Amino acid sequence: MSGWDNGSKGRSVPSGRLSRLGQFGRLAGGIAGGMLAEGARRLADGQRPRVGDMLLTPGNLVRVADRLSHLRGAAMKLGQMISLDAGDTLPPELSEIMARLRAEADPMPRVQLERVLTAEWGREWRIRFERFDDRPIAAASIGQVHRARTLDGRELAIKVQYPGVRGSIDADVDNVATLLRVSGLLPPQLDITALLAEAKAQLHEETDYRREGAEMEAYGRLLQGNDAFVVPTVAADFTTDNVLAMSFIEGVPIETTAGRSQEERDRIAARLIGLTLDELFRFGRMQTDPNFANFRYQPATARIVLLDFGAVRAVTAETSEAYRRLLAAGLSEDREAVKRAAVEAGFLGEAAVRRHGDLVDRIIDLIVTEASRGGPFDFADRRLVPIIREHATAMASDRATWHIPPTDTLFVQRKVSGMALLAARLQAKVDVRSMVPAYL
């Protein structure tokens, strides 16, 4: 979630089906106009414009990010869901969109907030609080968070869902997919039907605030007695379908710990990686949204605050076993076994291995060689990234081999990639190799 801009008055969330469809229409029209202008400019310069060049202009990128930020809900969330580690894996043009979507969300204006809370709590809801801050402390894709103190002295963080978000999920996902198709960013032969269905299901779950509250309490029980983490508790008397009230827990943004000692940064990253391994191999549940805003840090207690449990998913035994085989093959430095496990897990498609075997072997060799080095792994050392990206880009240019992994694997990998990205932001060094055997 992004912080509230003190200069911002907020923008109302379009809540009706027609108003949201109109926003997509405005976006498509703005992109088309931008393409025409860019095409004319290139022709005037004596160039032969390509559709991709005309589409991915800075102006069009800003239009996309701005409109999806305004829509919030599934439109913005879907962009965030595919954005982790974008700087390393996506073209620079797409990375810019995704960075804006991660960083920005327009809060509701006060009059819309008042209307939502009156519908949830009744007209006299303010008399239940000693203090309720109308200015949100965070605003994200599905809701915004306010701080409040109840009459009995409880400090609460109250997440309020944007109006119309739940009812717009299916149409928003379909509209974003259509934009991706029309733009040419997705090849027509790539079937994303199953992925879209799973995205819709996940987003419907994320808008169920009572479910999120139950997941939060479940995580509290799983981590009971673990001094490394702290989980908020649900305030059931203020929680509804569209409002989630929880204890307010002090903490600083997790990425601000990048300025602390190497030892402390290493410990923070190791604990988060350990939690991910617990989720994958022990808990059978994983919080699959690794947005940095979902983690805060308490310098005085050295504890990590875990927030936002809307994206918790069950980890199937099949998915857990697939990762176990892949990690075991990597630890044994058996490159052929790594390749087989990667295909079985769905990371690699058979067509890619068949048509680009040399590139696949080179990528696996680079990863296994680097991971086999003794001692802590330096997440800040990104020297391999451009080399791997170059090989992967060469394979990706062959659209006939494009392949979508199983949706369960995609969501787990989203968390794994997010934790690696956070460890890199902290410039942490963690002996991951010594942590893994206990789970195998």
Short note summarizing the structure:
With 440 residues, the protein is of the alpha+beta class.
Describe it:
The protein has helices at 17-44, 51-55, 58-71, 73-81, 86-89, 92-103, 110-121, 165-183, 193-206, 209-222, 262-283, 317-331, 335-345, 350-355, 357-371, 384-396, 407-425, 432-435, and strands at residues 129-132, 138-139, 143-150, 155-161, 229-230, 243-247, 252-253, 285-287, 295-298, 303-306, 312-314, 377-378, 429-430. Strand 3 and strand 4 form a beta hairpin. With 440 residues, it is of the alpha+beta class.
Number of strands: 13
The class by helix and strand makeup works out as: alpha+beta
| Main β sheet profile | 5 strands, antiparallel
Determine the strand fraction and express it as a percent band. 5-15%
Helix content: 40-55%
- On the 0-100 scale, what is the average pLDDT? 79
Number of helices: 18
Rg, Å, rounded: 23 Å
- The backbone outline, from C-alpha atoms, is globular
> Low-confidence parts lasting 5 or more residues at pLDDT below 50?
1-8, 13-56, 69-73, 82-90
